[in-house]
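Work package 3, deliverable 3.1, input record:
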Amino acid sequence: MDGSIVENPVSALVDDRMDEGMFRVDRSVYTDEDIFEQEIAKIFEKSWIFLCHENQVEKHGDYFWTEIGRQPVFVHRQDDGSLKCFINACSHRAAILTPFRQGNAKTLTCRFHGWSYKCDGACIGIKNEEPDTDKSTFDLREIARLDSYGGFVFGSLSADVPSLDDWLGEAKSWIDLMVVQSTEGLEVVPGSPIYAIDGNWKFQAENSVDGYHVSTVHRVFANTIAAREGKGEYTGIKKTEAGRMAGGVPTGSYDLGNGHMAVWAQHTTPEVRPIWEQKERLERDLTPAQVDWILNKGRNLYIFPNVMLMDNPSTQIRVMKPISASRMDVSVYCIAPKGESDTARAGRLRKFEDFYLTAGMATSDDLAALEDTQEGSLATGAKWNEFTRGMDSIIYGPDKEAAALGFNPPVCTENWDHEIHYHGFYRQWLKMLEEN
Amino acid sequence: MSDLQKEVTNLIYRESTLLDRREWDDWIDLYTEDAIYWVPSWANEEETTDDPELQLNLIYLRNRGGLEDRVFRIESRDSYASVPLDRTVHVVGNVLVENENGDEVEATANCIIHTYGKKGGLTRGSLYDFSMRRVDGELRITRKKITFIDDRLEGPIDVYHL
Ligand code: FES
Ligand SMILES: [Fe+2]
């Protein structure tokens, strides 16, 4: 290196000229493997990553194996009730230490050459140990930071991150809207499909808060459900509320800062939602704005960079794992209030299966659309994706709905057809890639 | 081969043939009105979910209306995932009649499903558990449980992929 300053070429990928009414992103951000490698190093290995829900590691010895970026890690419940998270690779020669994605083991014994580790990561056994071995040099490597908010567990490989509280920032009041749905806490319902997508992880981030596609991609879902309900079947909580999809209801979109984004749309028949049975309890315990937001507003929250919390037809944690520029895995979990009635639980699950799975009748269509955009992005002959819808309707700071609940989005618009909230996402993305 | 074995085998063969040839209405007619169609999801690496009401399934349709929804969506030509439609070949084997009780029959079978679509060729497998009932002299399906052995799902999955 000759010491001269070379401009990081990523800067040119986001064309951010708000004063001229332009915001666009170069499509190579979805296809370029070099950019992807930078994302792994500068985003996924440098920020808070959602790992699991505390309910998935409730008892002493419970473990949960997941990935930070591409690195395998596992969260382990300690004997004092706290959580630790370790790199999931044996200190000897790297075998994965957890035989299952989720399980219980108070000590972990490597299945390759039999080394063993205590719950706290201490190496306690080396088969045919040689004299003068200092086992402590083989203790498992703990990740730099681990913390949780409202039961949602996040970890970071880098110590150089803000507190989780500061990082989540304005997203916290949206997480709270999930957490307060039960006085006993939330639980992850058994059954957790994984799906593989031939698409870039940022398309999943975008899609999770894309209100604009709903009335086209999910028109067929709405029509299917309308036909079903026209036959007089599926009444009450069994209904999957489709009125919202046709459009014409109040909606909103928020850039929540730090790359987090959110959208909502008004439910037309909130009384068919599984949470409705708790209306009186909610009205007693919460503010009127919280109750309104929980009962009447279908919400999708994206937390930068790898997790989405949906409370729409059903309630979902959606976790994505980047594999390459054009490939990711997505794991979905139904998260539900502990202690809800069997009727509400069954209603919640049936709505989940109808809509939220790649074997369902809506997410499958999202997936097909997403994979098409991946293929289309190879067309470098036309290189920009424009995010300009809503440029003339920007509100800086909270709109009246946000003010009522008490959160402070830096930017929002009162329409989920708009695309302004993606600006915050791409600015955060660029900021992290520009750092060395 | 007993007459019942032949009859059960024929019904299972017919179902896969109708799916592969996209004769949706005839396919649905193989099911009784109250038929249950259940595809559990995997609860962990070794076990599927086993309580379809209170656990998460891949598909759980509690009567034939649920199958009609699927056909409605396919035939609408408005479903992104279903246009263009994947091509499929089901090859059914290991048909065993497990139980016969008056008009009710239980049977199991295995199926290899080869799919060709946007992602090229994919070959996957399912275990079938059938309940059947004799209605006006003909065997119809009252319950089909499909254990789809993949738990990392590639591409959209609909009734014809299983
Ligand atoms: S890799 Fe674990 S003991 Fe050898
Ligand atoms: Fe969608």
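Chain A touches chain B through 47 residues (CB under 8 Å).
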